[in-house]
UniProtKB/TrEMBL annotation:
Annotated Sigma-54 factor interaction domain residues: 149-378
Biological processes, Gene Ontology terms: phosphorelay signal transduction system; regulation of DNA-templated transcription
Residues found modified as 4-aspartylphosphate: D57
Superkingdom, taxonomy of origin: Bacteria
Keyword ATP-binding tagged: yes
Residue ranges occupied by any Response regulatory domain in the UniProt entry: 8-122
Protein's UniProt name: DNA-binding transcriptional response regulator, NtrC family, contains REC, AAA-type ATPase, and a Fis-type DNA-binding domains
UniProt keywords, alphabetically: ATP-binding, DNA-binding, Nucleotide-binding, Phosphoprotein
Amino acid sequence: MYEKDPVKIFVVEDDPAYTKFLKYVLGLNPDYEVEYYTTGKDCLANLYKNPAIITLDYSLPDMPGEKVLGQIRGHDPNINVIIVSAQEKIHTAVELLKSGAYDYISKDHETKERLLNSINNARNKTSLIKEIDHLKKEISEKYEFEKSIVGTSPAIRRTFALLEKAVQTNISVSISGETGTGKELVAKAIHYNSKRKSKPFVAVNIAAIPRELIESELFGHEKGAFTGAVTRRIGKFEEAEGGSIFLDEIGEMDLNLQAKLLRVLQEREVTRIGGNQVIKLDVRIIAATHKDLAEEVKGGRFREDLYYRLLGLPIVLPPLRERGNDVLLVAKHFLDQFATENQMRKFKITPEAQEKLMQYPFPGNIRELKSIIELSAVMAEDQEIRPQDISFNSTARMESFLYQEMTMQEFMYRIIRHFLNKYDNNVLEVAKKLDIGKSSLYRYLKEMEEAGI
């Protein structure tokens, strides 16, 4: 949670009696840091101190109130200026508020209450702006490439290189890869490292929305456009204005809607269902799929023109089984994250457990590894993760080894290691299951280890 800082307030007032009154009123709150000035010139000379709120007497001896207001706004439009005046002319108040004053308060018997309320509201507004800026900074830091995407393998380094290119322009990006490889994480990393990071990131999972609702979800609708449209709805493209829209599982979109999406992308405009207003768009498109869209085009299931419109900069995310020791780096990352979230001491993965993780093909990729690691932390007796703490509960079978390109000797080694882990290194049991002699098993393992396999 963002902590509220003390509020710096400037009081600009030339009436000694009223200044004394304000000192008393504002002194009641220890969170206020107040400085007092009697002229507009002195106030303006000290703006470098970055006050959050200024209470400004409209009738100062050296400068008109509207001139002081204008120079304050020119210095920093986020400073909340509260005009305090003996005048009660509605026209003057309206003009000052139009010029950027936060509030206009007349000097009368209700001034104290109104002033305190106005300062408190201005303070809350300032704190909210700071909190939003703080959260935006946190998000940007969270999605820095090296922090959000863990790994040092050649495959992931190639991905980093493409990400660096993606953030330098507004080119559309298409992300492909198996389920669980982190496509949405990469999309967020692109957005929050680009010039659009202060604008919305809107994610839409095409596969998760009923077909009859996708058009309304993407493009919005007007009240009465169809049965159940009781109010106007803003579509996801409008929500993402100035930012990025992430179209996940784009390969699941039916051909009819593909044609409508193509028009939106070509014209850079959208019209809500049941409406006539054409809404111009400034949105970056990031699309993702686990399918081979080129094959979908050949099969007539995806429009070729839309395919080329979305292709932009293609980024193919490697499956975890092709990332070598990244498995252990990502596992350690998830373990540390789990420990922090649950206020636990950090865990260590034993060499035996590391070996077990390295032998598994992770058909569910990053998502599956996260689930396995978090469960292992729960099952661990202490802060060490051992082989027995790691359970592979996926539907993966031994054929998953075929995902990897290895020599016959390497396949045999993996098979033996798999059974040793499964039967808690019981060599007699493994020899029996594989129908080989115990001495042959030992000899084979020794040869493979000496060969560095």
